[in-house]
Design a protein that fits this description.
By secondary structure, this protein is α/β, with parallel strands linked by helices. It folds into 2 domains: about 160 residues, Rossmann fold (3-Layer(aba) Sandwich), CATH 3.40.50; about 280 residues, Dihydrodipicolinate Reductase, domain 2. It is built from 14 helices and 17 strands. A 9-stranded mixed β-sheet has the order 16-15-14-13-7-12-11-8-17, with helices on both faces. Strands 3-2-1-4-5-6 form a 6-stranded parallel β-sheet, sandwiched between helices. β14 and β15 form a beta hairpin. α4 packs across α5, α8 crosses α13 and α9 packs parallel to α13. The longest helix is centred in the middle third of the chain and has 26 residues. The protein starts with 6 loop residues before the first strand and ends in an 8-residue tail after the last helix.
């Protein structure tokens, strides 16, 4: 059912995600008049606030995280906020929540960010309080389980109360401008699609590198690790967008259909095709940082780095490896996709001393949003001693190319789509389960072969085995 919600219910309304991302995003949408004046935002958490004290709490967060050019909107935004204390394990709290929400004339959207153990009681409480009707849709923030089995349990609990067209599974990477530009690059430009296959592409690299350590995520991260925290969702979604067939239209179902085909075509990963690591003390930006075990306060076998050689076993990508790597305490923060094309079949310049290099397409997602195409060009000169060729980058820096529109963070788009009911940038259940099935196979292989993470010093690009994973195929990571 299509509707634009006039109530937005935020679970975890005092958490870090809400302070850093959700409240600033909603205030930005309010500032640009993209949400209706009648939209009421109800926050809920265990903290003992009322409407006034929660608005004061929100003001502090907005003063800290909202861009300066938006801060004039804080005063007019805060009256939208209401608050209700809720303990998800107390059924009577949901009745009080329903009273606080009041009547949603058009409909309600729920943003649910909670521990996996609280999904079932939360859905049960919402159902009993009459907050799961046809004019209610729900957005689910990760983690959606820790395995295929637990993910199915969560999905079953949600599906008991909400139909699939009212379930919005969130992967915030899909809200990033450059991730969406990947679709525009592929399907709005005739020059790329004829080359986007195994005949012309040698390999693809996807890197998500972080300089931070555990920060405030100690309890969650040690139980998850890099594979479940980053590869299962963000990296596999990026891989699917790179590898998918052209959808019939830019709508939720066609795009999700093509992504799930890719995820189901992922080959079972051999033991020699993964590398795990855990950072030890070192230096980031010339500043000393502790090792993972020191930050955690105890020894652990949790991986903070993983590199994988993946394959998509279908006609388009037969024989093309996808190298994935992600980790914490790496030398720089960056997320990028590098599409490396094959060598030219014959160089007419070789007899004149010129060397060629394969073309590469570098898609930067964060911190800089840019697209760079590396082409071969001739160096200026009379060429008496031979022709010299070198790679020349053609850059499209997105902020420069589109200087007018405001830069938006991913959650602005995702929250607006949740309120309005557009599922295009959300993840369907069969996608999530295909991702978890592949991840579970890797974890089972690690357990069977007693794989333990290899140490690497903070400030390096992971353990040396990750370099070897690529180099034995003649591939160098794009650092």
């Amino acid at each position: 059912m299509s509707f634009t919600a006039d109530r937005l219910l935020l679970f975890g309304a005092t958490g870090d995600l809400t302070q850093r991302m959700l409240l600033p995003s909603l205030c930005a949408l309010h500032d640009d008049k993209l949400i209706a004046p009648e939209l009421t935002i109800i926050g809920t958490a265990r903290s003992e606030y009322d409407d006034d004290t929660y608005q004061a709490f929100a003001r502090v967060a907005l003063e800290k995280y909202l861009p300066d050019f938006r801060k004039h909107a804080i005063d007019s935004f805060l009256p939208r906020l209401k608050y209700q204390v809720l303990d998800a394990t107390q059924a009577d709290h949901f009745t009080e929540l329903a009273d606080e929400i009041g009547e949603a004339k058009k409909g309600m959207a729920i943003f649910l960010s909670t521990a996996p153990s609280l999904f079932e009681p939360t859905i049960a409480g919402l159902t009993k309080a009459g907050l799961t009707g046809d004019k209610v849709r729900i957005g689910l923030e990760k983690p959606l389980g820790t395995s295929l089995e637990t993910s199915r349990e969560i999905n079953d609990a949600v599906a008991a109360a909400f139909s699939e067209d009212r379930i919005f599974r969130i992967d915030h990477y899909l809200g990033k401008e450059t991730v969406q530009n990947l679709l525009a690059l592929r399907f709005a430009n005739i020059m790329f699609e004829p080359l986007w296959n195994a005949a012309h592409i040698d390999h693809v690299q996807i890197t998500i590198a972080e300089t931070v350590g555990l920060e405030s995520r100690v309890g969650y991260y040690d139980g998850a690790g890099a594979l479940r925290d980053m590869v299962q969702n963000h990296m596999l979604q990026l891989l699917a967008l790179v590898a998918m067939e052209p959808p019939t239209s830019y709508d939720a179902t066609p795009i999700q259909d093509e992504k799930v085909k890719v995820l189901r075509a992922l080959r079972v990963v051999a033991p020699a095709e993964t590398v795990t690591g855990q950072y030890r003390k070192g230096a980031i930006d010339a500043q000393p940082v502790p090792g993972y075990d020191e930050e955690l306060g105890k020894p652990s076998d949790t991986e903070t780095f993983v590199a994988i050689k993946a394959h998509v076993d279908n006609w388009r990508w037969a024989g093309v490896p996808f190298y994935l790597r992600t980790g914490k305490r790496l030398p720089e923060r960056k997320t990028e996709i590098v599409v490396n094309f094959r060598c030219i079949p014959h160089s007419i310049f070789a007899a004149r001393g010129a060397k060629t290099q394969p073309n590469a397409l570098v898609i930067g997602i964060q911190p800089e949003e840019n697209i760079q195409l590396q082409l071969m060009a001739k160096e200026p000169g009379l060429d008496r001693d031979g022709i010299r060729l070198r790679p020349v980058p053609l850059n499209i820096t997105m902020p420069d190319a589109f200087a007018g529109p405001k830069k938006r963070i991913a959650y602005e788009r995702l929250l607006l789509d949740l309120i309005e009911g557009d599922q295009t940038l959300f993840v369907r259940r069969d996608e999530v389960e295909a991702q978890w099935g592949w991840i579970d196979q890797i974890r089972a292989s690690w357990a069977e072969h007693d794989v333990k993470p290899k140490a690497y010093s903070a400030g390096n690009w992971g353990p040396s085995a990750a370099i070897a994973l690529a180099e034995r195929d003649g591939v160098t990571w794009h650092d």
